[in-house]
Structure formats: structure tokens, C-alpha cells
Amino acid sequence: MVLLEFFSGEPVCGECEVCMNLVDEIAKEYGEKLQVVKYIGPSAREKFEEYHIQLTPAIVIEETTMIIGITPSRETLKRAIDTELEYE
């Protein structure tokens, strides 16, 4: 399963850093079941447009679940990932 992270620029803002660290921790728990791809700032403009991302941080899971403009709680993010894994 693929999880996409979107951040507005480098260095990332405080909220984005919290989100990035949370996703990195969770990705370690899921191991090979979860691939994380990060898109940062202007260099990823096409991906931002493709997914209609206007606020960051933003997380897209398997193109079906979108969490935009906030850092989700650990439980909320894991529940979304688990739900997607059930459908694979």
C-alpha cells in the first residue's frame, strides 16, 4: 500500500514536521506493507495539482483516503491504513 505525504516547502513547518515524524514512526511499524512517498514544495507542483492539494500537511492513502491540513492522531491514521489494507 502507498501513502503519499505533501509538504509545502523546506524546511517544513512545525505542523508538517510533526506529521512527517508520525508517518515515519507508523511506517516502521507496518514495514513492507506500507510504502511512503514524500512530495515537498514547488518541485512537486504537478503532484500537488494531480491530487488537488492546497493545504499542508496532507496525506493521501491509496488514492481513496485524504487527510488535508491537519496532523491526524496516531489512532486515526492507523485506522485509515488498516481499513485500506483490509481491501487489498
Could you walk me through the main structural features you see in this protein, from its secondary elements to its overall organization?
With 88 residues, this protein is α+β, with helices and mostly antiparallel strands. It has one domain: 3-Layer(aba) Sandwich (Glutaredoxin). It has three helices and four strands; from the N terminus they run βαβαββα. It has a four-stranded mixed beta sheet with strand order 2-1-3-4, covered by helices on one side. The radius of gyration is 12 Å and the shape is globular. The model has no long low-confidence stretch (mean pLDDT 90).
Short description:
With 88 residues, the protein is an alpha+beta fold. Helices cover 42% and strands 23% of the residues. The radius of gyration is 12 Å and the shape is globular.
Task: Name some characteristics of this structure.
88 residues; alpha+beta; Glutaredoxin; four-stranded mixed β-sheet; 3 helices; 42% helix
